[in-house]
Amino acid sequence: MTARAPGRVNLIGDHTDYNGGLCLPFAVPMATTTTARTRGDDRLRIRSAAFRDPWTGHLDDLALDARDSIPDWVRYVTGVLWAAREDGWPLAGLDLVVDSELPLGSGLSSSAALECSVAIAVGTLVDRPLDPGSRLSLAELCRRAETEYVGAPTGGMDQLASLLGKPDHAVLIDFADISVRQVPLALHEAGLVVLVTDTGTAHDLAGAGSGYAQRRAECDAAAAALELPRIGLAWADDLSRLDNEVQRSRARHVLSESARVEDTLAALAAGDWATVGDILSASHASLRGDFAASTAALDLAVDTAVDAGALGARLTGGGFGGSTIALVEEERADAVRRAIDVAFADADVKAPTHLTVLPSAGASVNRTG
Ligand code: GLA
Q1: Which atom of ligand 1 lies closest to the CA of 13?
Q2: Which regions of the chain are under pLDDT 50?
Q3: What is the pLDDT of residues 230-240, one digit of tens each?
Q4: Treating both helix axes as pointing N-terminal to C-terminal, what angle do 211-225 and 245-269 enclose, rounded to 10 degrees?
Q5: What's the gap in Å between 367 CA and the centre of ligand 1?
Q6: In what order do the strands lie in the sheet with 323-329?
Q7: Within 13 Å of residue 104, how many CA atoms lie on the same side as its CB?
Q8: How far is the CA of 255 from the centre of ligand 1 (A)?
Q9: Which of 146, 158, 196 to mutate to test the pocket of ligand 1 (most atoms within 8 A of CB)?
Q10: Are 209 and 146 in contact (CB under 8 A)?
Q11: pTM to 2 decimals?
Q12: Whole-angstrom distance, CA of residue 313 vs CA of residue 302
């Protein structure tokens, strides 16, 4: 049984998911695969092509208080098994082999791809198959693994994008009620690609000290000050009632970012790619300014891409390192890529790596694999 779950790029709508706002990610062609086999005993054997030594353990090791002795990358796998057991899946001993085409920590959601591929492979083995009705609950199971077990307080966008992606479509997610809609995003037909530039500074979302966790805490504090469950549910008028300037800026980003997702939908419906590009760049300005989630390398990649002729560019995902995206005409992609390389070399910054991506298929199972 082999399951494949892709990474994602977020076209727009960052730091909105855990705040009850809107986002518009799409699945990328690169994926993580997990092959799962049941064993005759209650042992667990987890191997990754990226690490030499397999991890071996026992079903009893899946308790929350046993996770500290488990290596970091394995926790994304055992976290899914833990959440599955909490949900009543009848797990027995398993051999799992994972392999990924996604660079770790690059901002393309390698962790969500790993979690989703494990959840689907194991789910199929224990009669929890991947079907249209189960995708939302599998995404939630994987989010809980990441938040409650691994300790990365992420919001659920990545898992939904990996599970629900579709070629030539983005996934509109409204986190006010976790409703989902497919939005046509025919980049290829429009002669466009998304150029992903990985700045090579891995972002770490786990742990209370991460920039991501700090931003989330600031947003939660802003919501509490307005007596709302989540700051994305505020109205723009409410912001003046926030006395704390930092909380006000973070909240302003969240509300303006959801509004930009709506503006993007309108521009896409009108086929107005120039406006889509402008909105992406405005998103970056907000993530850099109000949300303070950018880095010098991310800013350099974004500014250089736009100067070199991209329609627009922004950091994608959590920020604090990771990747940028640039919306660019296919024939200009190489020139933009080269301009970024030259700018990084001139600034004496570690050379970035690039990929071009188009919206691709979401997770799937190969029963004979
Ligand atoms: C990371 C998290 C997501 C989301 C983004 C920011 O990718 O995993 O849940 O919060 O950052 O939009």
Answers
A1: 12
A2: none
A3: 999 999 999 99
A4: 100
A5: 31
A6: 312-315, 323-329, 192-198, 353-357
A7: 10
A8: 16
A9: 158
A10: no
A11: 0.96
A12: 5
